From TrEMBL:
Family membership: Belongs to the major facilitator superfamily.
Alphabetized InterPro entries for the sequence: MFS, MFS_dom, MFS_sugar_transport-like, MFS_trans_sf
The name this protein goes by in its record: Major facilitator superfamily (MFS) profile domain-containing protein
Domain of life: Eukaryota
Transmembrane segments: 6-27, 91-110, 150-168, 177-193, 199-222, 234-254, 266-285
Subcellular location: Membrane
Alphabetized GO MF terms: transmembrane transporter activity
One CC-aspect GO term: membrane
Classification via SUPFAM superfamilies: MFS general substrate transporter
Domain called Major facilitator superfamily (MFS) profile: residue spans: 1-288
Species this chain originates from: Dendroctonus ponderosae
């Protein structure tokens, strides 16, 4: 980007997306979608293709369709997310997703601000807010070392996501997200100190970036598991929408409030992460090792057994 500019960076970044778009026509449609829409023959064709691709024989017998699946005229309604058996789960997940996006994109935006020389060497600007001192980061071009350190913080997402994949099966989804949010808050507290050494700052940003990326991964695993099949896409979609709200708000903290007080900005993210950690522990269901509910009645049974 220092050589060609952000336009070329954006253009080159779309290359992988175009490759995925070209593959989409060869992706098989969901067999359950065909069943739910009454297209049982297409569902059988999809299952046969999947069996063939995996080198397995097609199961013998005939496909039996649940009458409830075909007869229900109100599949996947948004208001069903707020029925008594799901209301608490939905409200907590909406807050968790909003906080996760708020913290993730806030850290992304703060990274470049903190890497600017005037923002790093601002120990005196970290006094309490009542002193009216500011720590404004002037708009200066990033140096080569800034881009290298920024790349390191970005690469943190790979170990963060892969580590999360393993620990969520061992310790569960709720505990994993809760501990990660707390760890992220601790990293934000170190950012408040505004360390003079560039290595320490990069390390804290690296840890925070990997952890919050792991939280997103755990949320994407937990959310479709906790909702019944009939509401799974609506539930995940509503949570994703709430995450976008958090992403819309975070620039006012990561860029506007940060120029006034680094302490207030980083503390805001730490508090949001701690509240999200509490919300994770308040979730009524741990989905690790449990069967996915097919409908709301099975969901109520799962709540009763928790």
């Amino acid at each position: 980007m220092p050589i060609l500019g952000w336009q070329w960076l954006l253009a080159l970044s779309t290359g992988p997306l175009l490759a995925f778009a070209m593959i989409c026509p060869w992706l098989p449609e969901s067999a359950r979608y065909h069943v739910a829409s009454g297209q049982t023959e297409k569902a059988l064709e999809t299952l046969e293709k999947i069996a063939k691709d995996n080198g397995k024989p097609m199961l013998l017998g005939r496909l039996v369709v649940d009458d409830v699946t075909l007869s229900s005229p109100h599949r996947g309604r948004f208001r069903d997310l707020l029925v008594p058996s799901l209301r608490r789960t939905s409200l907590l997940l909406w807050f968790i997703w909003c906080s996760c996006a708020f913290c993730y994109y806030g850290l992304v935006l703060m990274t470049t601000e903190l890497f600017e020389s005037s923002a790093i060497a601002c120990a005196e600007g970290l006094r309490p807010a009542q002193s009216l001192d500011t720590c404004a980061a002037d708009c200066k071009p990033l140096q080569t070392t800034d881009y290298i350190d920024l790349l390191w913080t970005t690469l943190a997402e790979f170990p963060g996501i892969f580590i999360t994949i393993f620990i969520i099966e061992r310790y569960g989804r709720k505990k994993t997200m809760a501990v990660q949010f707390v760890t992220y808050a601790i990293c934000c507290c170190f950012l408040v100190i505004c360390p003079g050494k560039r290595t320490v700052l990069t390390l804290m940003l690296f840890l925070a970036r990997g952890i919050i990326a792991g939280v997103f991964q755990a949320a994407y695993v937990y959310t479709p598991e906790v909702y019944p099949t009939s509401l799974r896409s609506v539930g995940v979609g509503s949570c994703s929408a709430m995450a976008r709200l958090g992403a819309m708000v975070t620039p006012y903290v990561a860029q506007v409030l940060l120029k006034t007080s680094i302490t207030f900005a980083t503390s805001t993210y730490a508090v949001a992460a701690l509240l999200a950690s509490i919300a994770c522990m308040l979730l009524p269901i741990e989905t690790a090792g449990k069967e996915l509910p097919e409908n709301t009645s099975e969901q109520r049974q799962a709540n009763a057994n928790t």
